[in-house]
Amino acid sequence: DAGVIQSPRHEVTEMGQEVTLRCKPISGHDYLFWYRQTMMRGLELLIYFNNNVPIDDSGMPEDRFSAKMPNASFSTLKIQPSEPRDSAVYFCASSLVEPREQFFGPGTRLTVL
Amino acid sequence: SQQGEEDPQALSIQEGENATMNCSYKTSINNLQWYRQNSGRGLVHLILIRSNEREKHSGRLRVTLDTSKKSSSLLITASRAADTASYFCATGSGGYNKLIFGAGTRLAVHP
């Protein structure tokens, strides 16, 4: 298996623009997680899905953030409109029900100017 | 919000020495996991210990868990320069696979 795939790897955009991050989890995994990592706040869980259903989105910072998982092999995280404080590395991870270890993608480095 | 707090924040050692990192957490858990992150990369799972376990080994890694003190430690024996990375503890609770990560320990192993 190729592991968790994220695209793009790098994104540079201007404030106010819409940003869409994409994730393909490992085939057969039941859970998908979106995280954000910054120096100031560390690794934060934004939202996670179980069998394509959002379970907990309490970590989503604002209404500008939304996430979808239309099928078991694809998820998106959208920021609209983007702001400079959204600059961070965004990780997607997936896991089976058991064992509970999470497999992380390489991340998307987002820079909002 | 962060559940686990790693200690120390940074650790610098020579190759061949052992490295010990500690993690404390606040609420009850059903498992605790350790992850490694090399600079610019995603996190990689190292080891999982369940709340009813006290110690676990994997190669040069040894993890202990003390639920009465709400703490865990990760020991890397005979460290190598390739062990240079950030190490995170993450706690899991409840029926879902949600994890809460700590701030991490930055380990530098010098040749």
Describe what you observe in this structure.
The complex is a heterodimer of chains A (113) and B (111). Chain A is mainly β and 113 residues long. Chain A contains no helices and eleven strands. In chain A, strands 2, 4, 5, 6, 9, 10 and 11 form a seven-stranded mixed β-sheet that branches. Chain A has a four-stranded antiparallel β-sheet with strand order 1-3-8-7, with no helix packed on it. In chain A, a hairpin with a 2-residue loop joins strand 7 (65-71) and strand 8. The mean pLDDT of chain A is 95. In chain B, the strands form two sheets. In chain B, strands 2, 4, 5, 9, 10 and 11 form a six-stranded mixed β-sheet that branches. In chain B, strand 6 (55-58) and strand 7 form a beta hairpin. The A-B interface holds A 4, 31, 33, 35, 42-43, 45, 48, 50, 55-56, 91, 93, 95, 97, 99-107 and B 2, 31, 33, 35, 41-45, 48, 88, 92, 96-104.
Shape designation of chain A:
globular
Please state the average pLDDT score of chain A.
95
Number of strand segments of chain B: 11
Helix-strand pattern of chain B:
EEEEEEEEEEE
Number of helices of chain B: 0
Cα(first) to Cα(last) distance of chain A is 36 Å
What kind of sheet is the major sheet of chain B? 6 strands, mixed
Largest sheet of chain A: 7 strands, mixed
Could you tell me which chain pair has the largest interface and how many residues each side has?
Answer: A-B, 24 and 21 residues
Q: What is the oligomer described by this structure?
A: heterodimer
Structural class of chain B: mainly beta
Approximate helicity band of chain B:
under 10%
Mean pLDDT value of chain B: 93
For the termini of chain B, the CA-CA separation is 36 Å
SS strand fraction of chain A: over 45%
Per DSSP E runs of 2 or more residues, the count of β-strands of chain A stands at 11
Share of helix of chain A, binned: under 10%
- Tell me the radius of gyration of chain B: 13 Å
Radius of gyration of chain A: 13 Å
String of helices and strands of chain A:
EEEEEEEEEEE
